[in-house]
Design a protein that fits this description.
It is globular, with a radius of gyration of 21 Å. Strands 3-6-9-1-10 form a five-stranded parallel beta sheet. The chain has 325 residues and is α/β, with parallel strands linked by helices. The N terminus is likely disordered. α10 packs across α12, α11 packs across α12 and α12 crosses α13. It has 15 helices and 13 strands. 47% of the residues lie in helices and 17% in strands.
Length: 325
Amino acid sequence: MEENLFQQRTDLGQLQEAVASLKQEISKVIVGQEQMIELLLAGVLADGHILIEGVPGVAKTLTAKLLSRAISVGFSRIQFTPDLMPSDVIGTSVFNPRELIFQFRAGPVFSNIVLIDEINRAPAKTQAALFEVMEERQITVDGQTLLLETPFMVVATQNPVEQEGTYHLPEAQLDRFLFKIKIDYPTPEQEFRIVYNHHIMNLEKMIDSVTAVLSKEQIDHLRNQVRNLHVEDKLIHFITSIVAGTRNHKSIYLGASPRASIGILNASKALAAMRGRDFIVPDDIIYVAPAVLRHRLVLTPEKEMEGSSTDDVIREIIQSIEIPR
């Protein structure tokens, strides 16, 4: 009976092979950044949107482009600027003089992987255009609802340092991102490899060497496998305890919503599958929790003045909760 408890119920060989292939293709250009790549692929499997934050020049945009090349799906890029209008994102109705009717011309958001570069450079009016499409995978224009093709994923980038010409992202929009991934500078050894690779081969050739290894149909199949992973009730309690801890912590002004709990669950399932398990363990939850929660929490002004980060508080909350065995 005990042997059956640890017996693999789902064959995850195809999923692990797909993940390994994606990592191999992306690593043809990207050096290091293992956690970013792992969370990015977990986001694909968990059907979530991703916000990547880092200073200029650390390959945020490049990574998103490589992901779209490694997956055989549609790709579009939107450069957010202060004068960008909602119609520049979702599309607009254009009058057809021949037929004397208005016809909808789809915007760049009608794709599979949508890269939004410097998302915090557009005002709230344009940000609001993303609310419906990110949550419901549909667009409502002139009373007509248009569904987007699956898979649909927004990968957005932002610079945490530069403040001139930027806008604070609405909390409702931040809550729609599954992960906020922070990218640091590479180590000296990694930077040597980056510069050396550029010395022996230009960037265009490196990007051209990346080939598609996954199709839309394969992604749908892998996502179904991830959804069906086994989760014990005590681990769901662990997830909800972490999220509930953000709502009554003395250092947090605004805590996380139930969407965060669902995000941790889905991300933990994806990570477990990537690691060859058809069940999640507490370590999966602890690993993904900071990336799921850090952009959803607002610290009190006192804590911000002290220089504390949301990651510090998340770590403190997790340490205060008994880990299920």
